[in-house]
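[step 3/7] fold_predict: job queued, chain A
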Amino acid sequence: MQLSEINKKNLTDEEIEQIVYEGIQDSGENAYYGLVFGNSMLIKERVKTAIEAFQQKRIKKIIFTGGTGGVSNQNRDPIAEAIKMKKLAIYLGIKEEDILIETEANNTFENIDNAIKLMDSTYLDKIIIITSEFHLKRCVAILKKKYPYIKVITIPSKDGYSDKDNWFLSDASYNSGRSLVTYEANLLIKYAKEEKIADLEITGFDNKKIFK
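[step 4/7] structure written:
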C-alpha cells in the first residue's frame, strides 16, 4: 500500500512504526557531503552523529542546515540552529574548513532545497543525511520527490526516546517519543496525499477503519 492510500483514523503502534521506520537502514556507504538537519532540542545528538561519520571518513564535508523559525525553537533563540551546530562541531574538533552552513531554512523542505544549492554538483550523485531516526523517512521522501537523481544514504541520530526501539515506551505528552513519532506518521500520510513527497510503499495495512 502507498502512503497516500492509508486512511485509518487511529493508527496502531505497529502501523506507526511501519510508516515511520520501515525500510530506513544505514547501508554503510560513504558520500562527499553529510547533510545534518537542525532541531533546537536535538542539536547535541545530531552534531555528535555527524562528527562520528566524519571521523570514520564516511563524509568529507558537513553541511549544517537550520534557521531560527523552526517549530523546535520554542524559546525563540535568535541564533540559527546551523550556527549553533557549527560552533559545537568546531569545539569538538572539526575544522571550520570542513563545515558548510545554511541558516535560512525553517522546515525540512527548505533545509533540503537550501542545502542542495550549497553543494558542488560534481558530488551530488549521492549524499548522506543525518537526523533523528523518526525524521529520516520524511527527508528521504522529499529527496526522492524533488531530487530523484541523488542516492540517499541515511545515518540515524539516536536520542534515546524517539528511536525505533524506544519511541513506544513513553506516553503521548508533548514532545515525548510517542507524540513525535505519531505526529510524524500522520504528517507523512498528509504530505503524500498532497503530493509534496514521494508516495512511498508501506506494508501491512488494513484500511477498514477510515476517516468519516
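[step 5/7] annotate
The chain has a mean pLDDT of 93.
Residues 136 and 198 are 13 Å apart (CA to CA).
exit 0
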